[in-house]
Specification:
- Its EC number is 2.7.7.7.
- By secondary structure, the protein is of the alpha+beta class.
- The protein has 16 helices and twelve strands.
- The strands form three sheets. Strands 5-6-1-7-8 form a five-stranded mixed sheet. Strands 9-12-10-11 form a four-stranded antiparallel sheet. Strands 3-2-4 form a three-stranded mixed sheet.
- Helix 4 packs antiparallel against helix 6 and helix 13 packs antiparallel against helix 14.
- It binds thymidine-5'-triphosphate and magnesium ion (MG) (2 copies).
Length: 436
């Protein structure tokens, strides 16, 4: 049941007792951060509830013309099917594909049960999406034993109490723990001893590092760098040219010296606003102005809560009830209204032909992170800084003088609309479902 494939044995086995050890006051460092992620989460729930589907290529997602795969079972992945792929493509890859419509309420409930199990065992749980969390297991060690014992216990409880497979990665750094859990999938566990971190990472493609997006991958490839081992050999200046302010963090990661642990606990993983109108909105300038105001409002909520968001979602509903939800993943997490606005307006520009009359509109930010860890670094990129500073100052003024005191030029009725923003770029992906 608890297939432990690919497990790297704990550090002690690779660090024989040497006399020099006594010169170092550091105790042998244990991997204290675990990352647990459910396997093919939505699809696994559907297979659990319809066991005749076991072993078949199963996907959860919309079956319509614009349908997209939300989750793909591992048998479906063997045929090349992936999340965010158009359903039509998935059907071509697997003519015997089983398509199950999503049951978001059920997944949310199970998500809460998973998090409940994690919270039973480990006090410090940082949930980062519907099916995954980071855990700081150092304090739980005295009670439950070493990290691999805790990881196995969690996987076993999720399996026996919820009937679902999950995978666990462990490391001294949260970023490496997440990479390890992905390598352990499906239904596995991979704990990387501190001293073997660089060795574990060396053969992996640079794209496994979160924050190294498609553009960075291309830039590195032009320098002949494909793996993390090769990235380690790059001079820091060259790395900075490709990765910008992220470079030092990525370099520490590649070296195995990163020790970034849990961030602040993020309970509300998304926040947003939506509005319904009695009369349909038909004027594009008006619609655009209203979603701009919403983006600003959401950004303000983010800043008030001390968060940055990785994903922004635009929801539109027409008079006949047709609802459209489109998400955009930001290259850098942000709390800037200007950035959120660029993305939601671009999403709307793309969809407006199919939704000429709008009854309801909403903007939601998700994949929240505490501002000040990864987020703050990201905000230092380019012009975002200016906007966030300006916006923080506007927040302060609003707090002092009331909400009517300030608004941006283009949101005032009658003001000229802002220029069309650039498209969000290659990091954007269509989402069949809003992340709960
Ligand atoms: P993931 O954990 O990214 O993927 P997964 O659990 O399906 O598969 P893996 O074994 O690789 O972890 O996402 C969790 C759920 O979130 C997923 O089951 C469905 C939903 N989801 C979407 O709705 N759209 C998407 O584009 C992605 C990536 C996930
Ligand atoms: Mg998952
Ligand atoms: Mg996940």
């Amino acid at each position: 049941m608890s297939a432990q494939h690919g497990e790297v044995t704990p550090g002690r086995a690779h660090e024989p007792e040497r006399p020099e050890r006594s010169e170092s006051p550091e105790p042998l460092e244990q991997p204290g951060i675990l990352h647990l992620d459910m396997d093919a989460f939505f699809a696994s729930v559907e297979v659990r509830d319809a066991p005749e589907l076991a072993g078949l290529p199963v996907v959860v997602g919309g079956d319509g013309r614009r349908g997209v795969v939300a989750a793909a079972s591992y048998p479906a992945r063997e045929r090349g099917i992936r999340s965010a792929m158009p359903m039509a493509t998935a059907r071509r890859l697997a003519p015997d594909l089983v398509i199950v419509p999503p049951r978001i309420g059920v997944y949310r409930e199970i998500s809460a049960q998973v998090m409940g199990i994690l919270g039973d065992v480990v006090a410090d749980v940082e949930q980062i999406s519907v099916d995954e969390a980071f855990l700081d297991v150092r304090p739980a060690r005295r009670l439950f034993g070493p990290p691999e014992r805790i990881g196995a216990l969690l996987r076993e409880r999720i399996r026996s109490e919820l009937g679902l497979p999950s995978s666990v990665g462990g490391s001294v750094s949260r970023a490496v723990a997440k990479i390890a859990s992905a390598r352990a999938k499906p239904d596995g566990m991979l704990i990387v001893p501190a001293a073997r971190t660089a060795e574990f990472l060396a053969p992996l493609p640079v794209s496994v590092i979160s924050g190294v997006g498609p553009r960075a991958v291309q830039g590195l490839e032009r320098l002949g760098v494909r793996t993390i081992g090769q990235l380690r050999e790059l001079p820091p200046a060259a790395l900075s040219r490709v990765l910008g302010p992220q470079a030092p963090h990525v370099a520490r990661l590649a070296d195995g010296t990163d020790r970034t642990g849990l961030g602040r606990r993020v309970r509300d993983r998304s926040l947003g606003t939506e509005r319904t109108w009695d009369e349909d909105l038909v004027d594009p300038v008006d619609i655009r102005r209203r979603i701009t105001v919403m983006a600003d409002e959401v950004a303000r909520q983010l800043r008030a809560g001390g968060f940055v968001a990785r994903t922004v979602t635009l929801k539109l509903r027409g008079p006949d009830g047709t609802t459209l939800t489109r998400s955009s993943t930001l290259a850098q997490p942000t709390s800037s209204g200007e950035r959120l606005r660029e993305h939601v307006v671009a999403l709307w520009e793309r969809e407006r032909a199919g939704m000429p009359r709008v009854r309801l509109a909403g903007v939601r930010a998700s994949h929240l992170e505490p501002a000040g860890t990864a987020g703050r670094q990201a905000e230092l990129v380019g012009r975002t800084t200016g906007w966030t500073d300006l916006e923080a100052a506007m927040d302060r003024a609003r707090d002092r003088f009331g909400s009517g005191s300030l608004s941006r030029g283009s949101t005032l009725p009658g003001a000229a609309p802002a220029p069309t923003p650039p498209p969000p770029g290659p990091d954007e992906s269509p989402n069949a479902l809003e992340f709960p």
